[in-house]
Specification:
Elements lengths: L12 E6 L11 H5 L2 E3 L4 E5 L6 H11 L20 E5 L6 E5 H29 L4 H20 L9 H10 L7 E5 L7 H16 L3 E5 L12 E6 L2 E5 L5 H16 L2
């Protein structure tokens, strides 16, 4: 499949700038304190860095300012915002923005399964108490049956029959729209290497259809999307780099070549 070069003039989010940072803001997040202005010139921007470097904070800050939709289908409300240190510059407002994290998805699926199970147990208790065929039981069962029905409507089949990776891919794929803006934080926590490749192709194809992606990741596969702009956080600054020059990629290549030697 042929892929085109992404055009800067049709990017939704053009830049972020530092706003006033509260005095009590954690000093450990030097990325935020050093950030003055950062421009997005590509439909796919990938941010790499060690844990604690500030990449997740940056992603969440953008998500809050955009009132992005979260995994649970709700969007960030004004009263939730604790990341007012960022000011966004947009060329045009995206049709919809989403904030995904691999860990949030796993917790969300576990919560849905727990909710379904609790509803089933409540229905069993109602049937035992009132008799399954009684009018009282029918009325008492309705809210629990509605809960189960709503969850089934959201997801085809049983969530428990899908791996976390399959569930995440289906969930992600169903929310891809043209002109959408996607803020993704470490999706690899829910994905195998094979599924990291699958989501990379989904991202690549969606970007060519008009979507924009800002991704924080450690994944050597997701980072490898050929057209992406890659930035590595070093000493609190976002430094544009090539894939082959990323520290984790260099170490991975070394490990593959010298695996036995490194364990001696």
């Amino acid at each position: 499949m042929e892929h085109t070069v992404y055009l800067t003039e049709i990017i939704n989010l053009e830049a972020i700038e530092q706003n006033h940072i509260p005095v009590n803001y954690p000093k450990t997040v030097s990325l935020i304190k050093e950030l003055k202005r950062f421009e997005f010139t590509n439909r796919i921007t990938i941010i790499c860095g060690d844990n604690g470097s500030g990449k997740s904070t940056l992603i969440k800050g953008i998500a809050e300012q955009l009132s992005a939709y979260k995994i649970d289908g709700l969007n960030y409300q004004t009263e939730e915002r604790s990341y007012d240190f960022l000011q966004l510059k947009t060329r045009r407002k995206p049709k919809r923005s989403f904030h995904f994290t691999g860990e949030d998805f796993i917790r969300y699926i576990e919560w849905l399964e727990k909710t379904k199970q609790e509803s089933r147990e409540a229905i069993e208790e109602i049937n035992e108490t009132y008799g399954a065929g009684s009018y009282s039981a029918m009325l008492a069962r309705q809210p629990h049956e509605r809960t189960i029905g709503d969850i089934r409507h959201m997801y085809e089949g049983s969530l428990s029959q899908q791996s976390h990776g399959e569930g995440f891919l289906n969930f992600f794929r169903s929310r891809l729209i043209k002109d959408g803006l996607y803020l993704i934080d470490e999706p690899e926590s829910a994905l195998s290497y094979e599924n990291q490749y699958v989501i990379s192709m989904l991202i690549r194809d969606a970007a060519n259809e008009g979507a924009q992606f800002i991704i924080a990741t450690h994944s050597p596969i997701i980072t490898g999307i050929p057209e992406a702009d890659i930035f590595e956080i070093k000493e609190g600054k976002l430094i544009k780099t090539d894939y082959e020059n990323l520290e984790n990629i260099q170490f991975l290549n070394l490990f593959i070549r010298k695996r036995k030697y490194l364990f001696e």
